[in-house]
Amino acid sequence: MKHLNPAFESIKPNIGSSFTSLRFSRNENAKANTWHYHPEIEIVFVGGGSGKRQIGSSISYFKKGDLVMIGSNLPHCGLTNENTKNDFEIVIQFKPDFLGEAIWKTPEMNKVINLINTSRSGIVFGDDTKKYLEKKIISMHNASSLKKLAKLLDILNELANTDDYTILNAGKYYLQTQVEDNERINVIFNFIKNNFRKQITLEEVSDIANMTVPSFCRYFKKITNKTFTQFVNEYRIIHSQKLLAEQPMSITEICFESGFNNFSYFNRTFKEYTQKSPSEYRKEFSNIIS
Fold first, then answer.
1. CA dihedral of residues 227, 228, 233, 238 (deg, nearest 10)
2. Cα distance between residue 223 and residue 239, in whole Å
């Protein structure tokens, strides 16, 4: 069986800059739906829209735009695609040592260091922070030279001093420290991403990971803090949320399109995850469906 290797993204700073700042119009970000990782820390600002994202072992459906910070070598994908209706997306990428070593030893940078350490698990910021920083992020992207760097430091300072955020991967996230784990779990996540619409057996995915079924189950729980069944069901539910919000399909069609082969089980699992039935959830997004 062919293994799906994780995509390593090589990033080069903008000319004349120590970091990268890119602006994408709708559908322009080719990496959005590719499961990939890189040593650079990444801040992603989505100017409106909605969609599905996976950052580490956390998967979710986002709406009303997004502002996330993704730590070094934390795999991620799916922030935007052709259905997200985003106006634009700004992606900021910088290496942990992009300012050299000495500056990180200054007391003024303590909170920013804590922010960067926390980003290893992935951070999503709340709507208030996103709205407050929107103009600053756009202004930073349009600036040049020293002003651009100063504006980035100001943004990092604001992010470091807000409590309007959620950590996406609770507990210790092992992908940050074990290279062999990083590559193995990327293969597993890629396999789930490409096969969640059909039934996946433990024997099948254990073979992909080159492990016995009992060893795989222990390993997967250690890495993600979820059983394999919980993770796959969560991935399917998030996909169904995206379809319910964005596509004029029947709920029965969405059930099977999301990988569930039993409608009652789909309804029960959806309500356990969202505290709403699929029809109740869809009503919240009736203005989105064409």
1. 90
2. 22
Nearest to 119 by CA among 53, 167, 51: 167
- Cα separation values, 180 from 8, 176, 186, 209, Å: 14, 11, 10, 11
- Smallest CA-to-CA distance from 4 within 58, 63, 77 is with 77
Residue linked to tokens 């990092």 = 156
Residues 6+ apart with CB under 8 A from 250: none
Q: How many CB atoms lie within 10 A of CB 50?
A: 22
Q: Which residue(s) pair with 8 in the sheet?
A: 37
Residue where the block lists tokens 């990327």 = 186
User: Closest Cα to residue 6, out of 248, 156, 174, 193?
Assistant: 193
pLDDT in tens, 88-140: 889 999 998 898 889 988 999 999 999 999 998 899 999 999 999 999 999 99
- Prediction pTM value: 0.75
